């Protein structure tokens, strides 16, 4: 015989009804939940929502977007996000199928398709996806995030716009400082592990001699290594920019004893802790690392 009293039954039913109502109430009162693919996009989004939302990147600081497989927890994070932000299928190939299914949603930002975004090609017809390394693109991305976050959370629209204005002010100051740092002549010559920095280079008038690799995901053949080794000998760059996940054995094999300084560029924010101003720190570090080689 059940010990549950009629009054308790009515109470339980009332609680269940309330729970169902809460589950289906539009999330106008809730903090914005944003999921990005890579860390630099996370840093830009954090500058806008700050403590009025949560922002996560499914590719962690210790991972490489070039060698990544999506976990079940990543799929859950993507499915639960109010706003999804990615570069596009040319960069996050591992997510192309997932994002294609949601491409019609207004709450997906595909940055390679954004109006007025500055784009450069690596080779003819192949777009360079490292677009966050041009701070003018960062402002455009921040504007898009502000628009979407404001739609999702009307209550904090004014705050998001205020954070955007502050971000723009910080970017303008960053650009002035970077131009002053990198405008000095003469500069030393340099090579790069692969052509990942041209957004930053073109914004501030820099040029590398050559790139070791066309595609860091493809192991070069012996003839390609010999050809690049010859370029090091003939052009004699004074430093080489590599990345945290660069193949150092390949670098040493290619250099074959050629003496030059090597600088690791943190273009994904591996060394940076998430907080307000983190994107600015990412770009300040890049300017400082370039200057340490060039002068």
From TrEMBL:
Question: Does the keyword field hold Disulfide bond?
Answer: no
Q: Name one GO biological process term.
A: zinc ion transport
* Similarity-based family: Belongs to the bacterial solute-binding protein 9 family.
Name of the protein: High-affinity zinc uptake system protein ZnuA
Name the Gene3D superfamilies on file: Nitrogenase molybdenum iron protein domain
**A GO term for molecular function:** metal ion binding
Pfam families tied to this protein: ZnuA
Keyword annotations of the record? Ion transport, Signal, Transport, Zinc, Zinc transport
InterPro entries in alphabetical order = Bact_metal-bind_prot9, ZnuA-like
């Amino acid at each position: 015989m059940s010990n549950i009293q009629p009054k308790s039954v009515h109470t339980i039913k009332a609680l269940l009804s309330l729970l169902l109502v809460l589950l289906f109430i539009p999330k106008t009162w809730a903090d914005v939940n944003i999921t990005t693919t890579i860390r630099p996009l996370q840093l830009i989004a954090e500058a806008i929502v700050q403590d009025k939302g949560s922002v996560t990147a499914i590719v962690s600081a210790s991972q490489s977007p070039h060698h990544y497989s999506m976990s079940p927890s990543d799929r859950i994070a993507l499915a639960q996000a109010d706003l999804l932000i990615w570069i596009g299928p040319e960069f996050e190939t591992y997510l192309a199928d997932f994002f294609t299914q949601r491409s019609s949603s207004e709450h997906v930002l595909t940055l390679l398709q954004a109006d007025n975004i500055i784009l450069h090609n690596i080779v003819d017809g192949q777009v360079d996806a490292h677009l966050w390394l041009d701070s003018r693109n960062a402002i455009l991305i921040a504007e898009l995030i502000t628009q979407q976050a404001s739609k999702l959370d009307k209550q904090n629209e004014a705050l998001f716009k205020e954070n955007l204005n502050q971000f723009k002010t910080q970017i303008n100051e960053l650009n002035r400082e970077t131009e002053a740092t990198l405008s000095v002549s003469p500069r030393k010559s340099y090579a790069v592990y692969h052509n990942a920095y041209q957004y930053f280079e073109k914004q501030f008038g820099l040029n590398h001699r050559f790139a070791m690799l066309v595609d860091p995901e493809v192991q070069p053949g012996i003839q390609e290594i010999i050809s690049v080794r010859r370029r090091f000998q003939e052009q004699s760059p004074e430093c080489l920019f590599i990345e945290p996940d660069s193949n150092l054995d390949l670098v040493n094999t290619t250099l074959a004893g050629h003496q030059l300084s090597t600088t690791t560029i943190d273009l994904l924010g591996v060394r940076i802790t998430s907080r307000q101003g983190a994107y600015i720190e990412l770009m300040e570090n890049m300017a400082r690392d370039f200057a340490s080689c060039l002068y």
